[in-house]
Specification:
CATH class: Mainly Alpha
Strand content: under 5%
Bound molecules: zinc ion
Structural class: mainly alpha
Number of strands: 0
Number of helices: 5
């Protein structure tokens, strides 16, 4: 079976996830914004505070950001396991179109609702 998830595509999705993880960590105040040399932050953090406000605005709130960060970390861990891009419910390949929209997706579209209903009890 042909796969859409070539090494090049996987590398691109991984870069997206790593960039998203960095933005989330910044929004949560877990690490300084990845702009410039870290030594620039010593003595004057004025620019950093501006970046933090912008990052905050991107997410509904800290709760949502923490949830997203956990999902992104989970997806990155799957690269190490070699299971990235596979549905955790049926082990089928998640369509690339879906991964481009939601690179941290755990399931294909068919099993997203089903897995959440069974595993998380709904919201
Ligand atoms: Zn599935």
């Amino acid at each position: 079976m042909a796969t859409e998830l070539t090494p090049d595509v996987l590398a691109e999705l991984r870069r997206q996830l790593e960039a998203k993880r960095a933005r989330l960590r910044t929004a949560l105040g877990m690490e300084p914004p990845p702009t410039g040399d870290p030594s620039d932050l010593v003595g004057d953090s004025g620019d950093a505070s501006v970046d933090l406000e912008e990052a905050d605005r991107e997410y509904a709130g800290e709760e949502a950001a923490r949830h997203d960060l956990a999902e992104v970390e989970h997806a990155l861990a799957k690269f190490a396991l070699g299971t990235y891009g596979r549905c955790e419910y049926c082990d089928g390949e998640i369509p690339l179109a879906r991964l481009r929209v939601l690179p941290e997706a755990r399931y294909d579209a068919a099993h997203e609702a089903l897995a959440e209903a069974q595993g998380r009890g709904g919201a």
